[in-house]
Design brief:
This protein is an alpha/beta fold. It has a single domain (2-195), classed as Rossmann fold (3-Layer(aba) Sandwich). The protein contains six helices and seven strands. The chain has helices spanning 12-22, 41-48, 67-79, 96-99, 122-129, 164-194, and strands at 2-6, 29-35, 52-55, 84-87, 106-110, 133-140, 150-157. It has a seven-stranded mixed beta sheet. α1 packs across α6 (164-194). It binds glycinamide ribonucleotide. Glycinamide ribonucleotide binds at residues 7, 9-13, 42, 88-89, 109-111, 122, 146, 172, 175.
Length: 196
């Protein structure tokens, strides 16, 4: 499976996908990594591995993902031969121009047990809500905010002395296992569908 990754930040989840590929537990290749943030460390990580990178021009909008930018993103992903798109800490909402080019082939990792705590900084939302467990979810992306069909999710306990940082770090450890497993599951389903 040829993967394309979109991220806005550190890219530790992309690194976990690369590590799973290196370890032979995920039969895939990352062909391209795109970011809306030219300074994002995810681009550095990709460059150091010789992976094609690019910056998505969001026309100066801080949070919106403009239609033209989504079309350009879809075109770049297609040109790189991408079959599955992985959002890995990508902080803009994907809409029709990109969804229509990759129907049921765009995945997202979210740091909560969806449908609980959608949106930003879900680990802080979980702490503020005083829940005893949260977790992480990999789901298909649809037009909503963190609403698409769930592929895999796993719970993470909230400890009495957790800070936002310690809780997020514990969630990320699980994310790094869950995302490669979810990609494997979707790739297997797609391949089974193709051979039918
Ligand atoms: C991850 O924890 C991911 O779940 C979260 O951003 C972090 C990115 O980390 N995504 C969201 O909150 C999306 N709503 P990374 O850049 O190190 O992979």
């Amino acid at each position: 499976m040829v993967l394309g990754v979109l991220g806005s930040g550190s890219g530790s989840n992309m690194q976990a996908i690369l590590d799973a590929i290196d370890a032979g537990t995920l039969d895939a290749r990352i062909a391209i990594v795109l970011s809306d943030n030219p300074e994002a460390y995810i681009l550095e990580r990709a460059r150091s591995r010789g992976i094609e990178t690019g910056v998505i021009d969001c026309r100066g909008f801080k949070t919106k993902f403009p239609e033209e930018a989504q079309q350009e993103t879809a075109a770049r992903l297609k040109a790189a031969g991408v079959e599955i798109v992985c959002l890995a800490g990508f902080l803009r909402l994907v809409k029709a121009p990109l969804l229509e080019v990759f129907p049921e082939r765009i995945l997202n990792i979210h740091p909560a047990l969806l449908p609980a705590f959608p949106g930003l900084e879900s680990w802080k939302q979980a702490l503020d809500a005083g829940v005893s467990e949260t977790g992480c979810t990999v789901h298909f992306v649809d037009e909503g905010m963190d609403t698409g069909p769930i592929i895999l999710q796993e719970a993470v306990p909230v400890m009495a002395d957790d800070t936002a940082e310690s809780l997020h770090a514990r969630i990320q450890l699980v994310e790094h296992r869950l995302y490669p497993a979810a990609i494997r599951k979707v790739a297997d389903q797609l391949q089974a569908g193709m051979s039918r």
